[in-house]
Amino acid sequence: MFFTLLRQWVLTPITHYRLFHNFVRQDFFAQFSASVGGLLWLFMTPLIHIIIYAFVFAYIFQVRPLEEFGETRFIVFMMIGYLPWFAFAESIGKSTSLLLEKAPLITKVVFPVQIIPVVGTLVPYMTHVIGFLILLLYLIFEGYFNWLWIALPLVFFLQFLFTMGLVAILSALCVFLRDLQQLVALGIMVWFFLTPIIYPISMVSDESVRNLFLLNPMHSFVNFYRELILLDNFSLVNFEIIVVVSLLSYLVGGWVFMKIKLAFGDVL
Questions:
Q1: pLDDT of residue 168
Q2: Residue 128, class by beta-carbon neighbours within 10 Å (0-12 exposed, 13-18 middle, 19+ buried)?
Q3: pLDDT at position 166, please?
Q4: What sign for the dihedral angle of Cα 192, 237, 63, 45?
Q5: Burial of 143 (C-beta count, 10 Å sphere; 0-12/13-18/19+)
Q6: How far is residue 60's CA from residue 62's CA, in Å, rounded to a whole number?
Q7: How many domains would you assign to the chain?
Q8: Which residues in 247-266 are b (16+ Cβ under 10 Å) and which e?
Q9: Residue 53's pLDDT is what?
């Protein structure tokens, strides 16, 4: 039973490809329906974020370049961590309402419900990868490119798997525990400040406290992106943590979702 549920979870986008494709297309373009700018917002939104943060930190706070990252400007340092985090945070934030919003569909139509958390994770990642690509193109022109960048799609995919597992668990639990919606919103804010996105980990002077950051998977993702892009360094420790937590989250989250999905109809 355990492996049967896992197989169904893993193969869902393949065995139900047409349905999966339709869900993704519908949810993706629904973001821009009745919008004058349409798909242009895919490019405008990340550019506006980058411009605003650059102005605030470079001209208002006048944050100096970071020596440990090769005198990299702070805005570049921050956006390398912030853009992948943004995809993660939006997926988690929307996870609590994924099944609740589709309650009429779940209770009236027989279909593989496990498609919903997969689509609910994929669409935000499809949206925010545009901003990350814009930043990478800028860094290429700035001379940061190195051949280790070929590992970036793999790391981004592992982050996607890590997120999908959490989305599966949270979306399933919110069917039974509606208060999780408020707790998740608060948790995302706390998690953001516990992840070195707007500050370098070197600011934490206590080494024992710095080691505790290794318990935060998003720290490993963010740090790995920065070392790979800015320092031409493949951190084996961070990569090992990323692989383990991503696969565990994806498989455990999928198994939990598949285990309890039959009860959704009774509660919704």
A1: 95
A2: buried
A3: 96
A4: negative
A5: exposed
A6: 5
A7: 1
A8: eebbeebbbbbbeebeebee
A9: 77
Strand partners, 66: 72
What would you report as the CA-atom Rg of the chain, rounded to the nearest whole angstrom?
20
Could you tell me if 117 and 20 are in contact, meaning their C-beta atoms sit under 8 angstroms apart? no
Single pTM value for the model: 0.92
Average pLDDT of each block of 10 consecutive residues along the chain (268 residues)? 83 91 87 64 73 78 74 84 92 92 82 92 89 89 90 96 96 89 92 89 82 89 93 90 96 94 79
DSSP 146-199: -GGGGGHHHHHHHHHHHHHHHHHHHHHHHHH-TTHHHHHHHHHHHHHHTSSSSS
Q: From 64, 121, 68, select the one nearest 253 (Cα to Cα).
A: 121
- What's the DSSP call for residue 72? B
Q: Which domain holds residue 162?
A: 2-267
